[in-house]
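Researcher: Re-running this chain for the archive, since the previous output was lost when a drive failed. Same request as before.
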Amino acid sequence: MKIFLGVCLCITEPYAGSDVSNIKTTAKKTSDGEFYILNGMKKWITNGTFADFFIVAARTGGEGMKGISVFLLEKSMPGLKVRQMNCTGMWSSGTSYVTFDNMKIPKKNLIGKENEGKIKNQNLLKFQKDLNILCIISIMKDGVFYHNALDSVEFVMKKHLHMPIKE
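Model: Regenerated structure tokens:
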């Protein structure tokens, strides 16, 4: 029985580093507007090896921060691959590459509004820390985290992003 649910923040990329305004990972809407198709790679993602949920910044619009959107993804979704990086002395951090290959994401997985990445990313680092703390508290309280996983995610999103996950 699995009793830990990990979350990682996927912003950093091989060619943009931590310069969020220059990320290359794209999420393009399908013609019916019901899905996004995600393609790209993230690098130096702490906890990526162990995570069950991924908070991903991707380009949905033009250049700069106003063209960035944020998505919540599950590890089990087709098209998401994780590969641990060979970081000497840092194996316990689960630092990894995360790749997205024609990953079909329902529009309900969009966090906030499309192309508003700047406002959301300012809060995402604190968001991840609080979400991980909630994971630990849930494990200690219930013994199994999955019972409260979505409630915890939604609580932190309301607190830091001031909006619930879209229905």
